[in-house]
Amino acid sequence: MAVLLLSATACTSESAAGSPPGFPPGNVANDPISTTKSADPNVAAPRLGPASAVDAGAVLEEFKGRGMVEHMEALQRVADDNDGNRASGTSGYEDSARYVEDQLRAAGYTPVRQEFTHRIDDKRVKTFNILADTEGSTENTIVVGGHLDSVEDGPGINDNASGVAAVLETARWMKETGIKPVNRVRFAFWGAEEDDLDGSRHYVDELSAAEVRRTALYLNVDMAASPNGVRSIHDGDGSDFEEAGPKGSQEIEDVLFRFFEDNSLPAETTPFDGGSDYEPFLRAGIPGGGLFTGDVESKTKAQVQAYGGSAGKDLDSCYHRACDTISNTNAELLKEMSAALAYATATYALAARD
Ligand SMILES: [Zn+2]
Predict the structure, then answer these.
(1) pLDDT tens digit string along 278-296?
(2) Which end of the chain has fewer CB atoms < 10 Å from its terminal CB, N or C?
(3) What is the Å distance from ligand 1's center to 212 Cα?
(4) Average pLDDT in the 199-209 region?
(5) How far is the CA of 325 from the centre of ligand 1 (A)?
């Protein structure tokens, strides 16, 4: 059972001047009350119950005007300048990283590179993840990530400049609102996802047992702007597909569904099929969830009724191809998915311990 410290009655109608859009009053940085909500560090095995005071409609409104498309355009230019790709270990990856780091620094973060060496076809390749933290209790770290690398065959704009854009804009928004996270949020931009999830795998492998326990959950975004896409959420408890995440994953699914329901936007579930950076977290017993707008499945008639688009056509027909460019994206869908990520991030950043 979740015990909520935040009042569920706080909503936009009560958001007086000084409260950022989407947030209840009393969570801005200069409010001394918010500093008293830190979790008790003496309680073992923290798992979070989501707060219910973040306003889904206000967050969606806010994200309709934010710069996710600009981030995808910038990463397209990076690919154009670097042989058409941004694969891990290449100059295109380095330039992608610099773009993300500049954006994070400008927003007030201190990004760090976590370097690692991995093997690709008998070659040892050096690459890195980028991590940037908010303030908040380290007893309950919320990791929010997406992979920064592309495949070698293309610029990787839907896969996964779109996810990078969603994570980056969530990070910027968190700073701009001035809210003081009760729980630390760690934004992660993974390297080498396209090489067997090596970046996120390295990150989780490096965690001590205590750090694993202090990682409350992981939120993933891998492909958030599929041109013929759908709004899908990972199936936390395996109720729709076979694979279930660790306990707590269903709550994450519920929080993400609540965002779409509150905004009257249809959404569906997608399985944990091991195909993205949530996998090492789930294997370590960390609750996980996230968003996905689809790749090579063809769109059903029911999906066309729910989301529009073309029946019988792939959700992303340029998946892992040279044509995964800025024209291979759906800006409207990206705004909705980014807002959903921001909503879930804020909800858990302000959450109380179970
Ligand atoms: Zn991907």
Answers:
(1) 999 999 999 999 999 999 9
(2) N
(3) 24
(4) 97
(5) 14
pLDDT (tens digit, 9 = 90+) per residue, 242-253? Answer: 899 999 999 999
211 is catalytic: no
Residue of 139, 169, 193, 253 marked active site: 193
Answer yes or no: pTM beyond 0.70: yes
Q: What average pLDDT does range 150-161 have in this prediction?
A: 97
CA-CA distance, 302 to 137, in Å (whole number)? 43
What is the C-alpha separation between 94 and 147, in angstroms, rounded? 13
The domains located in the chain, with CATH, are 45-353 (3.40.630.10)
CA of 184 to the centre of ligand 1 (A): 25
**In angstroms, what is the span from residue 164 Cα to ligand 1's centroid?**
10
Nearest of 156, 138, 139 to residue 147 by alpha carbon: 156
Distances 248 to 43, 231, 274, 284 between C-alpha atoms, Å: 17, 21, 18, 13
Q: How much of the chain exceeds pLDDT 70, in percent?
A: 85
- Which amino acid belongs to residue 293? T
Q: Is 264 exposed, middle or buried (0-12, 13-18, 19+ CB in 10 A)?
A: exposed
What percent of the chain is modeled with pLDDT above 90? 78
Residue 161 predicted with pLDDT over 70: yes
Confidence (pLDDT) at 48:
64
